[in-house]
Structures are given as structure tokens and as C-alpha cells.
Amino acid sequence: MKRGDVLRWVLIVTVTLYFAVPMLAMARFAFQVVPVALLTPDRIFEGWSVSGLVDALGEPAFHEAAKTSLLLAVFAGILNLSLLLPLAIAIELRAQHLKGLLTTITLLPWVIPPIALVVGVAATFRSIAPWFLASPYSLVPFYALWAMPFTYRALDAGLRSINAKTLYEAGRSLGASSRTILWRVLMPNLGASLIAASVLTGALVLGEYAFASLLLKNTLPTYLEVYQGGEPRAGMALALAVMLLTALMLWIVVRIMRRRGLDVSAAAGAV
Amino acid sequence: MASVTMTGVRKTFGSTVALERLDLEIESGELVCLLGPSGCGKTTALRVLAGFERPDAGQVHVGGSDITLVPTERRGFGMVFQEYSLFPNMTARANIEFGLKVQKVAPAERRSTLERLLTVTALTEHADKFPHQLSGGQKQRVALARALATQPRLLLLDEPLSALDAKVRESLRDEIRRVQREFGVTTVFVTHDQHEALAVADRVGVMSNGLLEQLDPPRILYTAPRTPFVTGFVGSVNRVGATAAGDGRYTVLGRTLPGIVAASSTGGGKAAVRPEQIALDRDPAGQARVLDASFLGPITRVRLRDEREGDVIADLMSADAADLVVDAVVRLRLRDDVESVVIL
Amino acid sequence: MRSGPLAGLPFLAFIGLFLVYPTAVVVWRSATPDGALGTAALERAISTTYRSSFINSVQLSLASAVIGALVGLLLALAIYGLERPRWLRPALEAWSAVASQLGGVPLAFAFVAAIGTQGIATKLLTEIGFNPIDHGLGVSGFWGLVTVYLYFQIPLMFLVVMPAVAGLRQTWREASRILGAGPVRYWRSIGLPILLPSFIGGVLLLFVNAFSAYATAYVLSPSTQIVPLQIRFLLQGNVITGEEDLAYALVTWTIVLLLATVVIMSLFNRRAALWSRG
């Protein structure tokens, strides 16, 4: 091997180790009933058990929090798509010059982080619509907002890759109505992007902590934080499970985007 | 300026043979085009010259010295690539100066070289633009100036016009020829476009399957192709029957005239006749029928079916073809000014 | 579509109600403490303790952004030159898309299990004679937080910069070689300058990403003096009258800082996009 290749592999292996160690440490903490202080090389295979995860999954409070998070993900996904999709299609077909503006707007959630927005929400809705903040589902609009930079990228990439404008014009020249084209041509071709955008929203909602914690809502991440304080091992197992589920969802997004030949970096939401 | 010799150059990529065995001699100051379909080895030949590929066998000499193993950066050549080869982070001026800076040429000399090149390529007003602000033709002119700035011993052009519009392509082609003459630099120009090659080159080398089929001035290549491949690749040809009449003369389309036997002739009794060498006589007893005629401005291209020769293409002056309608019956004949034919 | 111009209305109303309105109110109130126009709150928000939390936040974000960007870039360069194994680049891209979103509570737990006081890596390192916590590398300290943040920063940078690295054309390298430049000269005059706008854009994106990060820092050490945690503290303690104004002012400064960063970032990204067309 050349010297450059050695350096390459040293870097790749080091980075891989950095990514692997916390996951492995987490798995050990969650599934091996041996405190770290008492762990010696000869006891490495002792005391492995999934009891922590079983306990955590059996908690009724967990079911409650998981249900809330799941519904939040579904509602946020629906709201996000019903706002963004018509707009993304209209801009692609009718007003490409507005694309830059829309990209700028979808950058706003980067500029106004959750913690800042929560302060604004507390300053406004708490006094004029206290009933609104009482429900855990008051998080839905904010989660939909927060997911926009990411979902817009996925939708935009999808629209461009199917040449939506050409498809629309071809459809019109064949005498189809706008509605027919929308439902019979564009939507079926956008299926993959829509699924990718929805799953991405779901993964983001599943991990969101700042809004939920500051607005005192009991979602999966806030529950996890409290639960782990009391049940360290079971809490760690549950966190690992949530992390793997999130990773799985994001991996599905990557697979869908890739099969459609779309840029994976869209998942990063950066412009 | 230097002469270039490639002797027995062979290059394979895995099991693919890119260059079978290339022998090529280029004189000092000459512009040679390597012409051929994609995959014929012309680009590999150029990359071997540039030093980007090391040949499996054979030598490359430039100006008498063996450079086969000299690394690219010490060969002192210039090269223009197909497209997108300008450094995007530099202005046109900085692109042109780059090679001079690498060679640590003094600022005063650098400036005078730069001014001359900008004038020659008519780029003075675009000197401070970045590549993304230039048109395709302007970019290739900057690339040409950049390649000439270091006074290269050899200029390599790798399909420099293929990414351009037809109109720009033609004017830049002439410009390359003019500038090449002005600098007198030995040049190898790779292209798959025969019109480009015939218009620009002192000599054209036709390549096929890793072999050089023929290397000759454009006129000879066109009138006296030496192999069936060259015959078919350069210009259009009709293959019509030829009967030997002794004394190296052949009877073709009713006329008997001297035949030039192609190097690889199989003696199959066929002659290669160019479409513009055929005339049509209006003769109700003729054996050919007009299939269609396409008007191409000065000439009209007529497709015919002849009972003996099969399908034939004839290019007539448009004035002579005005009365030809589909299904008109005519007789094929060689034009009177044709002095010889190529026997395949 | 006939409904074209109307398609934007619900979207704009939504953005207006849930993003612009609350933000505008906060910015307005931070400039009108006690009901009258004045800079008292804004000034207080960048003085004494609050100034140090801004400094801490900037340092933490900058350190994790610069290190994350450098490692992400080096990783992309390492992958770029490797032809084999072929699966490596797609695998790393997929992992990066996943990991760049893995912030929050579970990630904090993972690092507690690895480099916390009871962490397995801490134990291993201690046994070979290097106790990381004695050297200020505890998971709740500055460098501990940087280490944790890098877990999502490196993948984010990799995703952002890999297309730029892969966009380095072979012809640029060949053109520079034939003009007499060796590899060092190529990277110094062409390769790295071409990557520079993408790199700076990436650093700024990572900076914004780290500055906004909340959950990881909160779970690992709620008492860290960084801006998001200060805002939370004021929000909880809003029984004391007058302190809301301070929270509003902190938010205003945060938005100003992030807005400036994002604007500069898009300028660099535009430059990178232009060059990639050249």
C-alpha cells in the first residue's frame, strides 16, 4: 500500500471506531447486568439479559408517551405535506422564479431554533389561547415547521427528477385536465418522494426534545429522559431501541431516495 | 517546436486492447488529426503522448529524445480538453498565467506573453471574467491560450470543439488552425468528426480498433483511401461493380478508366464511387429509379435503386436535379471529370 | 393549474402564524422592555453572565463546527481517492444521513455509557493509565460536549461536502499537471481553493446546527452556561417579573447571530454552485 492509502485507512478506521464505540457501550450498559466497576476481561460473557428492555416496554407510561409521539409524527407529517406539496407543485409548474424565495423560507427554521420559537410561543399563545397549549397536539404545527427544510428538499428533488413541468405540459397537450394530471400522472410518480418526506418527518418528531420539554409535554424523548433517571439500565435499553428505530426510518428514507436516483444529502436539509 | 515519433506503442486496459501497435511520425510544426469512431484508440494515443497513460510497450520520442518515462509535468506540452477544464477559481487571465507562474517566469515576461495571447485569441475584454461568466467558445479560447502560454513543444487537442454549437465550432476550428500556424507549434488534434479533421489538418490519421489505418493529407485520404474502413469512414461511398479491362484499367458504370487498388483489396470486383462522382442521364430505358431527393442547398442528394448496382446515392448540383421526381427513370454514369476509381 | 397562486396562501398563513408572529413578538418585546422602546434588555443580555454564555455557546459551536468540518472534509477526501471497496462510499453516505439526525436524548445516553464516569471507555482508558475525567475530558465538560456534538457534526459535514469533493474534475488535475504543476501545487492552487467555499459554507451550517442544539447539552449537563440553556432557565423562572424581557433579548441576539451566519453561508454556497458550473 502507498503511504497515502495508509493515511486514508487510518482515518476511516478511526472515524468508524468513534461512531461504533458509543453504540456498543450503550448496548453493553443496557443488556449486561454487570456494573462497569466490576467488569473484568474474564467476565465479558457474564450476565447478558434483555430483561431491561422487556421491563421498559411493559411500562404503561411508555405506551402513553409512545402513542403521543406516534400520533404527533402522523399529524405533523400530514400537515407538513398538505402545506408544502401543493405549493411545491405550483411553483415547479407555474412560478419557477419563486423557487429561491421558497428555499429561503424553508431555511427559516435553521435561523429560529426550537428554543427561540418556544419563547415566542410562550409569549403569544400562552396568553391569547391558553387552551391551545394545553393539548400535547399543540406541538403538531411546530413539528411540521421544523421538518420543512428537510421535506422540502426531498419533494423538490422528486419533482425535478420526474420533470414535472414537461409531464404537465405533455398531459395538457393530450387534453387532460389539471386535476387528472395531478392525480393520475404527478402523484403516482411522486410516491417515493412523499413516502421519504413522511418517514423523515416521523424520524425527526421521534427525536425532538426541546419543544416537548419546554412546553411540558409527555412525548417519547421527554419520557425517556425522566425514566432513565429512575431506571438507568432499562432506560438505556429503551433509548437504544428508540435510536435504532430512528436509524431504521432514516435508512428507509435513504433507500427510497437512492432507488429514485435522488441525492441522499437532501436528508441533511442544507441548501 | 519538435517532431514526434511513436514506435510500436501498445496499451491495454485489463483485457481491452486500446492500442494494438501504433507507429506514428509527425513532423515539426505539422498539425495531425487522429480521426476515428469512439473506442478506436485515438484518445488513448493522445493520453500516452501527454504522459497520463504509460504504454505497455513501445517508445515515444519528441524532438529526438525518448520521453516514454518522463512524467507529464516535465514534458513541457500544452493541452486543450473537451470541456470544463478551466480552473473555476481563477479568472481567464489567471488561468492563462498559471503555467507561467508554475515555471517561475519573470512578471514582465509573463505580462507580455499574456497580452499577446489575449490579443491573438481576441479575449482582451474578457480577461478578468471567471469561467462561469464565459460562453463555451470563449472558454475553449482561454483553454487554447493557456495551453500555448508556456510555448509548448507539442500541443495536444482532445476533441476541443465537441461540446460547442455548430456555428461556434466552425469559427473556432478555423481560429485554432490560424493560431497554430502563427505559433508554428507541432499539434495533435483528436476528433471523431471527419469534416473537422479534413478541414483543419495537414495530415489525417484514421484509426480503428487500436490501429492506424492510414495517415495522409486530407485530399489523398478522400480520393485514395487505402483500406475498406477508411473508404467507408471518410465521406460516403457507393460500392458498384467493377470489371478488369487489363492494363490496370477497370470498367465502372459504363466507363473504362484507371483503377487505384486499395492496399487491402480483396479483388472482389467492386469500386468505391463517391456520390458526387455520379451523373444521371434522363433515359427512359435506364435501369435506375429515383426513390427520393433531398434538397440540401447547393446540392441535392438523390437516392436511387438500380437493377444491377442496388441502392446508390448521388449528389447533384441542385440546378441539375430540379426536374427529378420520385419514380423518374434514369441511367447512372460516372461524371466525365472522374479520372480514376478506387478498387476495393 | 388555476389554483396556482392560491396554493401558497395556506402555507404563508401557517408560516406567518406559527413562525413569524411569535418571533416578531419576541423581537419587538426585547426592544420595548417595560412597554417603552429601549435597549436596556438587549444590553443586559450581552453583559456579565449572559455575555459569557454567548461566548461559551460560540466557542462550543465553533470548536465542534471547525473540527467536525475538518474531519468531514478529510473523510470525504479519503473516500474520493479510493476505488475499492466500492460499497464504502454509499454505505458511509447512508450512515451519515442517519447519524446527522441522531441528536438528542438517546445520543447523550450513549456517550454517558461510553465516556461518562461509569463509562466503559473511561474504564478502559483509566486501566491503561489515562483517566480522561482527570484531564478535563468528562462528558459534561467543554471538550466532552464537543466530542458528543461531533457525532452528528461529522456526518452532516460529510453529506454537505462529499458532492463538492466528488465534483473535482479529473481534467483540472490533468490540466495542471501538463502545465507543469505537481500534486502539492495542484492542491494548493486549485483543489483546495475550489473546495474552500463549500468548506466555509459547511463550517457555518455546522455552527448553526451546534448553536441550536439543546437536548444533548441539557441531558448531559443542565447547568452548562450556554445560550439555549440560559433561555430555558429564564423561561422556567418567569415568576420573577422583568426576566421575560431578558429571555426575549437572548432570543433576539440568537436570531441575529444565526441569521447573519445563514446569510453568509448562502453567499458561500452560491459561489460554490457557480464554480461547479465553470
Quick overview of this protein structure:
The complex is a heterotrimer of chains A (271), B (344) and C (278). By secondary structure, chain B is α+β, with helices and mostly antiparallel strands. Chain B contains 9 helices and 20 strands.
Structure description:
The complex is a heterotrimer of chains A (271), B (344) and C (278). With 271 residues, chain A is mostly helical. Chain A has two domains: 1-49, no CATH class; 51-267, MetI-like (MetI-like fold, Orthogonal Bundle), CATH 1.10.3720.10. Chain A has helices at residues 3-31, 51-58, 60-94, 99-111, 114-128, 130-134, 139-161, 164-173, 178-207, 210-214, 220-230, 232-259. The longest helix of chain A has 35 residues, at 60-94. Chain B has 344 residues and is α+β, with helices and mostly antiparallel strands. Chain B is built from nine helices and 20 strands. In chain B, the strands form four sheets. Chain B has a six-stranded mixed beta sheet, with helices on both faces. In chain B, helix 2 (92-102) packs across helix 3 and helix 2 runs parallel beside helix 4. Chain C is mainly α and 278 residues long. In chain C, helix 1 (8-31) packs across helix 12. Chains in contact: A-C, B-C. Chains B and C meet through helix 2 and helix 4 of B and helix 8, helix 9 and helix 12 of C.
Properties at a glance:
heterotrimer; A: 271 residues; mainly alpha; MetI-like fold; 2 domains; globular; C: 278 residues; 12 helices; 0% strand
Unreliable spans of chain C are none
- Shape descriptor of chain A reads globular
Alpha-beta classification of chain A: mainly alpha
Bin the strand percentage of chain A: under 5%
Percentage of residues assigned to helices of chain A: over 70%
- Average pLDDT reading of chain C: 85
**CATH fold descriptor of the largest domain in chain A:** MetI-like fold
SSE order of chain C: HHHHHHHHHHHH
Approximate strand percentage of chain C: under 5%
Number of strands of chain A: 0
Radius of gyration from the alpha-carbon trace of chain C, in angstroms = 23 Å
What is the CATH superfamily label of the largest domain in chain A?
MetI-like
List the helices and strands and how they pair.
The complex is a heterotrimer of chains A (271), B (344) and C (278).
Chain A: H1 3-31, H2 51-58, H3 60-94, H4 99-111, H5 114-128, H6 130-134, H7 139-161, H8 164-173, H9 178-207, H10 210-214, H11 220-230, H12 232-259
Helix pairs in contact in A: 1-12, 2-12, 3-7, 3-9, 4-7, 7-9, 8-9, 9-12, 11-12
Chain B: E1 4-13, E2 16-26, E3 31-35, H1 42-50, E4 57-62, E5 65-66, E6 78-80, H2 92-102, H3 107-120, H4 136-149, E7 154-158, H5 166-183, E8 186-191, H6 194-200, E9 203-208, E10 211-216, H7 218-223, H8 228-233, E11 238-244, E12 249-252, E13 255-261, E14 270-273, E15 278-282, E16 288-295, E17 299-306, E18 310-317, H9 318-321, E19 329-334, E20 341-343
Parallel strand pairs in B: 3-8, 3-9, 6-7, 7-8, 13-20
Antiparallel strand pairs in B: 1-2, 1-4, 4-5, 9-10, 11-12, 11-14, 12-13, 14-20, 15-19, 16-17, 16-19, 17-18
Helix pairs in contact in B: 2-3, 2-4, 3-4, 4-5
Chain C: H1 8-31, H2 40-44, H3 48-80, H4 88-99, H5 104-115, H6 120-127, H7 142-166, H8 170-178, H9 183-212, H10 215-220, H11 227-236, H12 243-277
